[in-house]
Specification:
This protein has 2 domains: about 45 residues; about 130 residues, no CATH class. Helix content is about 50%, strand content about 25%. The strands form 2 sheets. A 4-stranded mixed beta sheet has the order 1-2-3-7, covered by helices on one side. It has a 3-stranded antiparallel beta sheet with strand order 4-5-6, with helices on one face. Helix 1 runs antiparallel to helix 2 and helix 3 runs antiparallel to helix 4. The termini are far apart.
């Protein structure tokens, strides 16, 4: 018969070994994720023209800070291809005036998403952008998203609207 003190000592040793093993496995997994998965994706994203910073987040979220780009749709297409199944959060350099303009045209975009009248949305967008006397602006569309961009001086705003609910791998966060 084994004394009780020896049984407790063995149980403590087994628990300690299990905890050390678990810690090592978690450390290996995190290291593998960072160097095998995240770094190549971050490098691909950073290589896209117009990207100023890439921050790998949790839950497959990646923040991408953009500079001023001539065509948001083209930039986003490259970013989505490089990101695979990761969710992109675009960062821009918006101003309160550009945000107010976005708020003004948002109704037309949302209405177009529901009713399908994209021509009216485009006309409303261009009229509002011309009235605001922006340096540059654009509205683009593909089968998955509607892309809006405004620029005034060194401030620029990017907004991406998914055309189908629940199918968005890209969002914007000024």
């Amino acid at each position: 018969m084994i004394p009780v003190d020896l049984k407790l000592q063995r149980a403590g040793f087994v628990i300690l070994v299990a905890l050390v093993t678990l810690g090592a496995l978690i450390g290996i997994q995190l290291t593998w994720k960072r160097f095998v998965l995240d770094q190549p994706v971050a490098a691909k994203l950073a290589a896209v023209q117009g990207v100023s910073k890439v921050t790998m987040g949790s839950n497959s979220n990646i923040e991408v800070s953009l500079k001023s780009v001539p065509n948001l749709k083209a930039t986003c297409s490259e970013l989505l291809e490089a990101a695979g199944n990761s969710r992109l959060i675009l960062k821009d350099n918006r101003s309160p005036a550009l945000q107010a303009l976005l708020d003004k045209v948002r109704f037309g975009v949302e209405e177009a998403l529901v009713q399908g009248d994209f021509t009216a949305m485009q006309k409303e967008f261009y009229a509002a952008a011309k009235e605001a006397k922006l340096d540059s602006y654009g509205v683009y569309m593909d089968s998955d998203y509607i892309y809006l961009q405004f620029q005034q001086g060194d401030k620029y705003l990017y907004q991406v609207f998914p055309r189908q609910q629940g199918k968005s791998l890209i969002s914007t966060d000024g």
